[in-house]
Structures are given as C-alpha cells and as structure tokens.
Amino acid sequence: MIGQRIKNYRLSKKLSLSELAERAGVAKSYLSNMERDIQTNPSIQFLEKIADALDVTVDDLLNPIQKPESSEVDPDMDPQWYELVREAMNSGISKEQFKEFLEFTQWKMNNK
C-alpha cells in the first residue's frame, strides 16, 4: 500500500526510480522493493527522505486519500464516477491535467 502511493507520487512528479532514489539518498533497489510491496515495513527515516524528495508529507505516504463522509458526497452521484475520480487522484494526475483531458475529449466529440 505505501509502495503504491510512493510510486503514484513519483510518477506524478515524472521522476524515474533512479531519480527519486538519488534525490532522497536511498538505495534504488530498496525503493524498487518498496514500490513492488516486497518490502513493506520502511523506517520513518526512509519515509521522511522519500516524502521530502517528493514534496509531500509522511502522512500523505502513510494514509490513503480518505473517502468523504457520506454527508459530503452527492447522494445522486454514481459510485463508479466517484471511484474513477479517486483512481485518477491516486494515479497522480493533477486537476489541471484532468481538466485538459476533459476539454480535449469534449472538443474531439464536437468536431466529429
């Protein structure tokens, strides 16, 4: 779980595994094992180095994005849409990239 979040943040920053390992001052092999969930119990020092290199908090790495309370979600919202947006967020796509994708898709549909 932590490894997948590290990978998502790394990819959203457009960093290779080698680049992140170098920036964080950690072994590339250890980082790779973390991302593949082979190693699942990192030290706090490792997490602090990775978080600093990714410009996120250790809490961001440890805790998944929380689903809003049911009172915060539109009751008419299709759960699959919510899940799709959550997956986009977890993959590291920025709001701007998502918006550009939607605008391009709308433009493409209008110009068929």
From TrEMBL:
In this protein, which residues make up the domain named HTH cro/C1-type? 6-61
Q: Answer yes or no on keyword Manganese.
A: no
For this record, an example GO cellular component is: cytosol
Q: Which domain of life is it from?
A: Bacteria
Boundaries of each Sin domain copy? 68-106
Q: Which Gene3D superfamilies match?
A: lambda repressor-like DNA-binding domains
* GO function term, MF aspect, one: protein dimerization activity
- Spans traversing the lipid bilayer: none
Keywords of the record, alphabetical order, are:
DNA-binding
Q: What is this protein called?
A: Transcriptional regulator
Organism annotation:
Paenibacillus swuensis
